[in-house]
Amino acid sequence: MNLQIEGVDGEHFEEISRIKTMEHGKTIDKSRGETRRRIENV
Fold first, then answer.
1. Which of 2, 9, 18, 19 has a CA-to-CA distance to 26 between 20 and 30 Å?
2. Rounded to whole angstroms, how far apart are CA atoms 5 and 11?
3. Domain boundaries, the chain
């Protein structure tokens, strides 16, 4: 999942995490962690 993530607020953070969970079969906690790390690297 390649997205440009800039200025992500809480609503989009959860949405992105849930999509990753549905599409990749990850737990929501793992998806949230990956999303958080991705945002930090932007």
1. 9
2. 13
3. 10-40
Considering only residues 5 and 31, tell me which one the structure prediction assigns the higher pLDDT. 31
Residue 21 one-letter amino acid = T
Task: Please state the φ and ψ torsions of residue 40, each to the nearest 5 degrees.
Answer: -65, -30
Q: Taking 90 as the threshold, does the pLDDT of residue 39 lie above it?
A: no
CA distance 32 to 14: 7
Cα-Cα-Cα-Cα torsion 20, 21, 26, 32, nearest 10 degrees, comes to 70
The rounded distance, in Å, linking the Cα atoms of 42 and 22 is 23
d(CA 7, CA 29): 21
